[in-house]
Amino acid sequence: MKFSTKAIHAGQEPDPATGAIMTPIYQTSTFAQAGMGEHKGYEYARTGNPTRTALEQCLAALENGQYGLAFASGLAAESAVLNLLSSGDHMVSCDDLYGGTYRIFERIMSRYQIQTSYVTAGNIEEYEKAIRPNTKLIWLETPTNPLLRLVDIRAVAEIAHRHNILLVVDNTFSSPYFQKPLDLGADIVLHSTTKYINGHSDVIGGALVMNDQKVYEALKFHQNAAGGVPGPFDSWLTLRGIKTLAVRMRQHEENARGVARFLQEHPRVEKLYYPGLASHPDHELAKRQMSGFGGMVSFQFRGKLADVDQVVRRLKVFTFAESLGGVESLVCHPASMTHGSIPKEIREARGVNDTLLRLSIGIEDIEDLLADLEQALA
């Protein structure tokens, strides 16, 4: 099946009991068993739920993976991956990454003597140089959050596997519609399904997809043991959102291209980050690695911190809020919101300064989005 067909049908056969086309919401905490060790595949809803199973199978199909696991949030999915590590292990990560990921690396994993080295996102040589004898995992975002840098997944995968290291790729910004890291050599793909996969800003969720059975079994064990699972209604809402993922992503990208071209010419824009522009340093890599450039645009405008508040208050169509990937357009100030947990000196050294704004471009009419930006920046 092609992508759009998978999104609608993978893991979502008509209900065998009733013939219902839509996957039922199995709103139950436990399941009847005929006798000792005799049940219909489900025992307790933390361990497994038919609605969640449908979601996990669909997510795996979309990423061209064998196994999918759904979690209560993206960070719950991250925690499962990090629990593959043991005290004294080491990780290598790209330096431009989500503030919540940095926080769990530095304020939680470090308490268990698990250290992280950060390297320039797109500098492939740095990844190999940062590897130590106790390095067990390489962590990538591509495109990165919020500066939209790209990392050559295939090249880093070759390095990781040469050293017997797992490669994890956060694919949230691209969605599986535009990028499939497993096909490029990644071992685990991570999503905050809160974002594009659900697409309607009404669910918190996360997911992991992989091909290796042993890795799957270890992560599945953690999912059940720690219990950070989504409820059946959240799973159902995410499945509902997935059905329109392809058409939404096409419109997100079309609008993002229009916004990026507009901002590229605007006199108040000092720096612009969008991999779909030929001026982006990773544009050629994006063309090779992705089937589209996504719906995220970041820019730094000429002004001071005080001007940020003026700009975001003037916006009428864009909503000033955290998160991304919904049908509505959002604007975020990373320095005080999504990346506020990163110390100021580290954040600014990486390029996340006080006048950087991150746009999640929705699927509204492009004319309204451009007019809104024009009047807010005027």
CATH architecture of the largest domain: 3-Layer(aba) Sandwich
Strand order of the largest sheet: 1-7-6-5-4-2-3
**What's the CATH topology label of the largest domain?**
Aspartate Aminotransferase, domain 2
First-to-last CA distance: 48 Å
Number of strands: 12
Count of alpha and pi helical runs: 14
Contiguous runs where pLDDT drops below 50 for at least 5 residues? none
**What share of the residues lie within helices?**
25-40%
| Percent of residues in β-strands | 15-25%
Chain-averaged pLDDT: 97
Sketch the topology as an H/E string, one letter per element. HHEHEHEHEHEHEEHHHEHEHEEHEH
What characteristic shape results from the CA principal axes?
Answer: globular
Total domain modules = 2
SSE topology sketch:
Elements: H1 3-9, H2 50-62, E1 67-71, H3 74-82, E2 90-94, H4 99-108, E3 115-119, H5 124-130, E4 135-141, H6 153-162, E5 166-170, H7 175-178, E6 188-191, E7 206-210, H8 213-226, H9 232-242, H10 245-264, E8 269-273, H11 283-289, E9 296-301, H12 305-314, E10 319-320, E11 330-332, H13 344-349, E12 356-360, H14 366-377
